[in-house]
Amino acid sequence: MDSQFGLSRVDVLRAVQDAVTLWEDATGADLFIHDEASGFPIAFVYDGRQATAQERARQRSEHRARRNRIDAQQQELEARTRRIVDAQESQRQRLAEYNELAASHNAVVQRWNLATSIPEPILNQLTAAEDRLMLEEARLTEEGRKLEAAGDSLSEDAARFRSTVEEHDRMGQALERVFAASPVLAARYLQLLTPDGRPLPGREIQIFQFDSPSHLQLVMAHELGHAMGLKHSDDTVALMSEQHELAGATAEATVHAADLEMLRVRCPEL
Known about the structure:
Layout: H1 9-27, E1 42-44, H2 48-113, H3 120-178, E2 187-193, E3 199-207, H4 213-227, H5 257-266
Parallel strand pairs: 1-3
Antiparallel strand pairs: 2-3
Helix pairs in contact: 1-4, 2-3
């Protein structure tokens, strides 16, 4: 077990047991025995394949983390937009109310201007109303200035956000180009043979690459199938298919009908 895989002995034993369980649950039979004394070894061989898988996983994890931050930024921008829109609507309503009050006040002032004199109480009322209108106008003007500044700031932040999204998308595309899907020998089952093809006692499973615990389970179960004498299946969804499209974090190991048929040919008593 090469420590660079980042797995403990418990992790490996769990992966082996999960792979064994796949076969035994599908057949309803006990197919394997864990025998540390005389069983065959499972070797984890670290090389460029796993190093590439780990680097791919690291960069994709960082890319997802950036996506999460971008999503949070988008939510914050949307919330700011809603607040500004609500504030602008509120100001429009207040401005409309102000204009109505100002028009009414001006009409009253004009009528009194036509009179020969204005009673002092009326003059005081008109003066107080004028002061209130001027104060409201100043408040509306200041709020408008702040809203305009907030809108400008939002527009600048939105532009920077769009640039961030575009850069993130370019990085994602570059990531997929660098780590484009290609066939990888993830593991192999080795059986020593005599010159005439008869099996010798020495045999071994070698694990080279996996992307996730579920992928390791798939790889392990596939190689245990070889250990039972099964060859590759032409059925692309079979566990014993030579290639698996979902050899990643979403890979799911399942024993299919084609696998069971191959095993029954190999072991008719099952």
